[in-house]
Design goal:
Function: Alkaline phosphatase with broad substrate specificity.
Strand content: 15-25%
Keywords: Metal-binding, Signal, Zinc
Number of strands: 20
Oligomer: single chain
Protein name: Alkaline phosphatase
EC number: 3.1.3.1
Organism: Sphingomonas glacialis
Largest sheet: 10 strands, mixed
Distance between the termini: 46 Å
Structural class: alpha/beta
Length: 548
């Protein structure tokens, strides 16, 4: 099987002088604590994909299955998107408390013409927009991450966050990070004014060279051959039988390929070595956002040869990463999870015997629905706003009380009349629902909505499409499949813990990604003070100290 260049070799090539350590603060983890915490988020890695391929893994995923395996972890909220999901992993709090209710939301009060706000931007910066021309910021994350809490307790602790997406790096790293890097489409970058370490410069040079060279088609592993079948999407477009061959200079094809994760993880490995993470007097933490699986899922769907090849390659990449960590001699603990799951493209689902799978009608888009409602009510201005035909819908603020009431009633009726819509909740209904408790697999739809509702930021209405209705009306564009629903194919993700010497076990009951932060805090003896987390500590060591 053709693989990318050795991750260990790539990391060694990125080495530069170590950074000086800081003076330790009063908090010191106990001797039993790991010296380095490694948190890996695989974007769009559903529990369904983990279940499907877990027996075929021989590298990093195979190693992680020798530790604590929670195959039914939950991003328990309804807003199963990248930004909300990453905000839960290391805060221990659900989106209702992190404030990250979606990738994008509408704020009609912002000064700029573009009223859509991106979760990881500062919309107050003049001349910016939410979709490309924005300034990356952590301002919308309302709570601290585990790394922040660690650093507040002891400034000597190093916190590092690396990802293929800015929102992943920011939401896992938080507000006080020693190194934070993300891919901007051309290079790994950070906040303006930050110095660029030599290891990042070398990573950018190596990645640029990778993109500049053509990529031959990757071999198809035996386990992937049953998936290697083209699916017609209309207009001559097919997916399902791609092997990641790409032309020289195609940055977009690079991003939706296994090579992207190779570059992300190689940079993380280089920073571990360059900064000598885990070799100081206390416990360090590095967060790694592997983003390629999400781009591949969006571009090709989840059940073709492309996704199968990607997961086999990522397995090898993670295996090399862990071997590099072994070579440092550092006692490290790994947790791997995902920000959300994903649903396959409806055309292939129909072929697989799921006749309910379909694409959403264009008429469900808030802007289009709003035009029809405004015309019917005789209102000569936009009345509805929203990002996609699944999620938060906002009613215009510059309406009279009577108009607002009429628009709300008309919008509820409009969406409920569609056979593609499962639920329409009002903000008042959601706000009146207590924050959910108990097993996440048993939550009602309203409770799932409550877990990602933030008054003042969430919509006036929340629309849920029927199961397997993809909110991408046409496959003619770049994306053919997505996620974002309140259903378990989008909510359920694996949670895997591993540390050398840890006894293997598997817990099949439902747990949540918000349980990760309190579990890791327990491992290093860090008390979690205010804000109180939503998650609970998971017992990883039978007979050890009980979780607090």
């Amino acid at each position: 099987m053709k693989r990318q260049a050795s991750l260990v070799a790539m990391a060694l090539a990125l080495l530069s002088a170590p950074l000086s350590a800081k003076e330790p603060a009063p908090f010191t983890p106990p001797a039993s604590a790991p010296k380095l915490i490694v948190v890996v988020s695989v974007d769009q890695f559903s529990a369904d994909l983990f279940d499907e391929y877990r027996k075929s893994f021989t590298g990093g995923f195979a190693r992680l299955q020798q530790g604590g395996v929670f195959p039914s972890g939950y991003q328990s909220h309804a807003a199963t998107e990248t930004c909300p999901g990453h905000s839960t992993i290391l805060t221990g709090l659900r989106p209702e408390h992190t404030g990250i209710i979606a990738n994008n939301w509408t704020d009609l009060s912002v000064a700029r013409a573009d009223k859509v706000v991106y979760c990881a931007e500062d919309e107050s910066v003049a001349g910016t927009t939410h979709d490309g021309q924005y300034t990356v910021s952590d301002k919308h994350l309302l709570v601290p991450t585990l790394g922040e809490r660690m650093k507040a307790a002891n400034p000597a602790i190093r916190v590092v966050s690396v990802a293929g997406k800015d929102r992943a790096a920011v939401m896992m790293g938080g507000h006080n990070v020693d190194e934070l890097w993300w891919w901007n489409g051309k290079a790994f970058v950070s906040y303006a004014g930050r110095a660029t370490p030599a290891v990042v410069s070398r990573a950018n040079a190596a990645t640029a060279a990778n993109i500049a060279a053509p990529q031959a088609a990757l071999d198809v592993p035996e386990v992937c051959k049953p998936h290697d079948r083209a699916v017609q999407l209309g207009g001559g477009k097919t997916v399902g039988a791609g092997h990641f061959e790409r032309a020289a200079g195609s940055a977009s094809a690079f991003r939706a390929s296994p090579a992207f994760d190779g570059a992300i993880v190689a940079l993380a490995a280089g920073l571990v070595q360059d900064m000598k993470l885990g070799q100081g007097p206390t416990t360090d933490i590095i967060d790694v956002g592997a983003s390629a699986t999400d781009y591949i899922g969006h571009t090709y769907g989840t059940e073709g040869a492309e996704m199968c090849i990607q997961l086999q390659q990522l397995d090898a990449t993670l295996g090399s990463f862990f071997q590099m960590l072994d070579s440092t001699g550092v006692d490290y603990e790994v947790v791997l999870t995902a920000d959300h799951g994903g649903n396959d493209l409806p055309e292939r689902e129909v072929d697989a015997g799921l006749p309910a799978a379909q694409r959403a009608k264009v008429m469900l888009a808030p802007a289009i629905a709003g035009k029809e409602i405004a015309t019917k009510l005789g209102i000569a201005k936009p009345v509805l706003f929203g990002d996609i035909p699944n999620g938060d819908v906002y009613i215009a603020k510059d309406l009279t009380t009577a108009q607002h009431k009429a628009v709300k009633a008309a919008a509820i009726a409009y969406y409920k009349a569609s056979p593609q819509v499962a639920e329409v909740f009002t903000a008042a209904q959601i706000r009146a629902t207590p924050s959910p408790k108990g097993p996440p697999e048993k939550w009602t739809m309203l409770e799932r909505a409550r877990a990602s509702f933030r008054a003042g930021r969430s919509g006036d209405l929340l629309v849920f499409l029927q199961p397997r209705v993809t909110p991408i009306p046409s496959a003619a564009g770049g994306y053919v499949a997505t996620h974002g629903s309140p259903y378990d194919y989008d909510r359920r993700v694996p949670i895997l813990f591993w540390r050398k010497g840890m006894s293997r076990f598997e817990h099949t009951g439902g747990v949540e990604t918000v349980d990760i932060a309190p579990t890791l805090a327990h491992q290093i003896g860090l008390p979690l003070t205010a804000p109180k987390v939503d998650g609970r500590c998971l017992d990883l060591n039978a007979g050890g100290a009980p979780c607090r």
